[in-house]
Amino acid sequence: MTRPEHDPGIEFEPHLNAGHSHTPDPSESKAEQTIERDARRGGAERLAAMHAVTEEPFVLKPTDEAKKFSAGSFCAQCGYDMRGCAHAACPECGFDPSGGFGPYLKQRIEQTPSGTQWLVFLIALATGGILSVLGSLFGQLILDSDVGLVAYAVTTPIYEEFMKVIFILMLIELRPWVFKHAWAIWVAAIGSAATFATLENLLYLNVYIPNPTPGIILWRWTVCSALHLGCTTTVTFGLIRMWRSSITRLRPPAVSDAYPFIVAAIVVHGTYNGIVLLAEVFGLSF
Known about the structure:
This protein is mainly alpha-helical. It is built from 9 helices and no strands. It has helices spanning 26-41, 43-50, 64-67, 101-111, 116-143, 148-174, 182-208, 214-249, 259-281. The chain starts with 25 loop residues before the first helix and ends in a 5-residue tail after the last helix.
């Protein structure tokens, strides 16, 4: 058998050969920097917990029958009799109650001070204010475009409903333990929406609408503000559902838990925009 021209053994790989100058792919250095940055922020620990074997889709969830067994005597995963076992991992299914996202989340909940919620509230207010300015500017650009009216009715509700709660949504998905109580999510979300609505009204009444009538001013501060607060209230039900499901079940947060409420808010907001546009076609101004 003839020997290949280049030995295919792994020990002859360029990066393992001390006498060979190997230039790594630039993307590898970026990946290494990302890993180091996540490690400093605690992200590596979170990712490790989320990708533990106990979080794999093929791992069965505790059955009703297994739940009936007393803790510490039987495996919470499959119900195997664990009495006499020297290790925490189940020899039958491999489930280890000390690993995975659940214990990691429980530890972070215990370590996070309650005062963190108020910092989140202040950041949510600032975020709502900044995004309200960006949202109103984007809305005006859409109205000035060739497909302004249709696009305004369809796209504006989508980005505005996300803008008002995007910071809280991302925080629940990445750091659910910062919220100790559901009311903290309510305060942060409604506060963000109130800031969003207030600054948006000020922009419309002082910049975008020249010489607004008293009727328009009243409409903006009542109906439009109520629309923003009402839609955000609907979305907040979804955010709390997403957060509570993660905290009580000690599992990674699932944005899908909030989707029905987000879609409902977008539909309500879009319906309002459509009615207003139709009214303006018939000579009514809002």
